[in-house]
UniProtKB/TrEMBL annotation:
Subcellular localization: Membrane
TM segment ranges: 41-63, 83-103, 110-129, 135-159, 180-201, 216-239, 260-276, 296-317, 324-348, 354-376, 397-421, 441-461
Top-level lineage group: Eukaryota
Key words of the record: Membrane, Transmembrane, Transmembrane helix
Any coiled-coil regions, as ranges: none
Lineage: Eukaryota, Fungi, Dikarya, Ascomycota, Pezizomycotina
Family according to the record: Belongs to the major facilitator superfamily. Monocarboxylate porter (TC 2.A.1.13) family.
Protein name: Major facilitator superfamily domain-containing protein
PANTHER family from the UniProt entry: MONOCARBOXYLATE TRANSPORTER, MONOCARBOXYLATE TRANSPORTER, PUTATIVE (AFU_ORTHOLOGUE AFUA_4G14260)-RELATED
Length: 467
């Protein structure tokens, strides 16, 4: 029907019918907006639930580490178990750049299938780990195989989360650009997992052995992973882009610019030290400060609890429109504060000094735990630079590479921790402040790597002063 005929037909309608037609047209965008908001809420809840099967074991490994040191029944070097925690995180993060690049465009429609496969791999790895007789069995199953499965769950679902909170809403003109806030909320759920799981694992290990505990954890992983995966569907925009040959190409122009490498190096440095307290704080509290197993487990929980608030807080700072802070400033706040916590609180602890260790766990957990929530701001800044140069950029690939940088830091920190711990035992031994114990070199290394995680603000200041 021609436009003139439509107008004349509408003019010939009674006023009541015209009002009804207008109401229908107004209700359609509103219903689409409500449906899109409902889907985003479901995606957010599902992403939060998935933090349990993805990060629950890695963030509770310190409890397993303390259990292995007290109940060693395997063949091989007992000290090698300290590598498992950092290896788990390192393998997960190192695989993410490849998985993010794979599922951001070409294989976007297979994201949920891949996540289910990852859950199956994780469950099988925990089952196989329960039959371990040698330490290398634990490293292979818990440190490598389970990590690869968890990364296969994390990468496609996180890509979908970013797209649901960084695209137009259901065909309306309104847009959802709260990606940093959404990441912050999910990271808060991750820290809830890290706060609760150590006590669950401690209770299971006290009642059963580690083999039965791993089998129970396999069942928990299976149930929560499958439910969470089907709550995070792939965004329609990713599926439609994958059907076009041009949409399958990933833009790599950002690799020519210095800003990306500044942020990547900062993440590597910060991650070198961040994984060390997660692995050794529980054992340190039991051996050096002579705390009970329950108190040591409480410290690991206190290490993760502040991240519930700090992830949302730093995510808000990165997206804040009223009091605007640059991405480098927000990362520097996190890095410098966590370094001070390591130097002043962890380093000065002595036998029986529960208060200082609690203070360290809370402050370091808050500021270091919120560091990854600043990545939403980093992505926004990199996207603005790409827009200023009129260059395309894929935020999913960027986010995957930042995770890869964190994996390099985790692995490097884990490999450095073993000789540092050996050097501390040869020169110091148990006794005195934390600096004088065998963990002294680890404490110094944690503080230094944390503070250098905020070096981007110095680079930004230097560039500004040249202008």
């Amino acid at each position: 029907m021609a436009r003139s005929e439509t107008i004349s037909l509408q003019n010939s309608m009674p006023a009541s019918e015209n009002t009804a037609v207008e109401a229908v047209h107004l209700e359609e965008p509103a219903s689409r907006e409500w449906e899109s908001s409902r889907k985003r809420a479901m995606v957010l809840v599902g992403s939060g639930l998935l933090q349990l099967p993805i990060w629950g074991f890695a963030m509770s490994y310190g409890v397993f580490q303390e259990y292995y040191s007290s109940n060693w029944t395997l063949e091989g070097s007992q000290s090698a178990t300290g590598v498992i925690g950092t290896t788990t995180n390192g393998v997960m993060y190192l695989s993410m750049p490849f998985l993010f690049a794979l599922f951001t465009k070409r294989w976007a429609r297979y994201r949920q299938v891949a996540a289910v496969c990852g859950a199956v791999v994780s469950c099988l790895s925990f089952l196989l780990s329960s039959f371990s007789t040698h330490v290398w069995h634990l490293i292979a199953t818990q440190g490598v195989l389970a990590a690869l499965g968890c990364a296969l769950v994390y990468s496609p679902t996180t890509l979908s989360l970013g797209e649901w909170f960084h695209t137009s809403s259901g065909g309306s003109r309104r847009s959802s650009n709260n990606r940093a806030v959404a990441y912050g909320v999910v990271f808060s759920c991750k820290n809830i997992v890290g706060s609760v799981c150590p006590f669950i694992v401690r209770g299971l290990l006290d009642r059963f052995d580690f083999r039965t505990t791993l089998r129970i954890w396999m069942a928990v992983t299976a149930g929560t992973a499958i439910l969470g995966i089907f709550m995070v569907p792939t965004h329609p925009s990713a599926i439609s882009a994958a059907t076009h040959p041009r949409g399958r190409k990933i833009p790599w122009q950002f690799l020519r610019h210095r800003t990306f490498y500044v942020y990547a190096v900062a993440i590597v440095l910060q991650s070198c030290g961040y994984g060390i307290p997660q692995t050794y704080l529980n054992t340190y509290a039991h051996e050096v400060t002579l705390l009970s197993q329950t108190s040591a487990t409480l410290l690991l929980t206190l290490f993760n609890i502040p991240g519930i608030a700090s992830s949302s807080f730093f995510g808000y700072l990165s997206d804040n429109k009223r009091f605007v802070l640059s991405a480098t400033t927000v990362t520097a706040i996190s890095a410098v504060s966590s370094a001070l916590a390591a130097f002043l609180f962890w380093g000065l602890t002595s036998q029986g000094s529960m208060a200082l260790l609690v203070l360290f766990s809370v402050t370091f957990g808050f500021f270091a735990g919120g560091y990854s929530a600043t990545w939403g701001g980093l992505l926004n800044e990199l996207e603005r630079e790409a827009a200023a140069r009129n260059e395309p950029v894929d935020s999913g690939v960027l986010y995957g590479l930042l995770n890869g940088a964190r994996g390099v830091g985790y692995v490097s920190g884990g490999l450095a921790a073993v000789p540092l711990l050996r050097a501390g035992s040869e020169s110091g031994g148990i006794g005195g402040f934390g600096y004088r114990s065998e963990y002294g070199p680890l404490i110094v290394f944690t503080g230094l790597s944390s503070v250098f995680g905020g070096w981007g603000v110095m680079w930004r200041w230097r560039c500004t002063s040249r202008l």
